[in-house]
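note to self: dont lose this again. the chain is below, predicted strucutre after it. 220 aa total, dont forget to put it in the shared folder this time
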Amino acid sequence: MMTNHLDFLLEQNRLWSQSVKDRDHDFFRHLAMQQNPKYFWIGCADSRVSANEILGLQPGEVFVHRNVANVVVHSDLNCLSVLQYAVDVLRVQHILVVGHYGCGGVTAALYNTRLGLIDNWLRHVQDVRDKHRVRLMAMGCPDRQLDRLCELNVLEQVLNLSETTIMRDAWARGQDVTLHGLIYGLHDGILHDLNMPVSTDNELLSRYEAAVDRLFASSK
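---
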């Protein structure tokens, strides 16, 4: 008799659903009525980095987009479509670009590891590496270089995000929405703020440059 490989997952789902209803009988009824998150998370597709669980938030409290190495580029219509829905329709107040230490995509970009089709996507991260190559190479230690590139990649994606027409239009009409760059530690489960909050395009470059300088200053 063939075993249904989804049986375990479906049973886990039933147990989770029942446990939620045991705590709050009306949870799913309320959840189905509306989606009103304050937060939009742009993160890595890594299976160990789950937005709701890391933030301690319930379903419906954070809108999520994920891809390999948490990249934001102007040619990615998938990411931009999710961004526009989050900003224009859901009216989120905070957008979090979240990377993580030990990211496989960033590691491959740092060391020019060939993985296949994804090499083309990771070219964006290699551009970040090349932009800061001199300061990265001066660090010497490969582990520190990788940690720093994971952080720099987050800052670069916040910069890219800030330059989209979606964000510029939102700020031009006075919408209250702030961008943040965060990095997650797989070893301890802690999120760290990279101190680059952006809520208007007027402060973009100064915030970016200051955040980058702080990263390298902390490496000395």
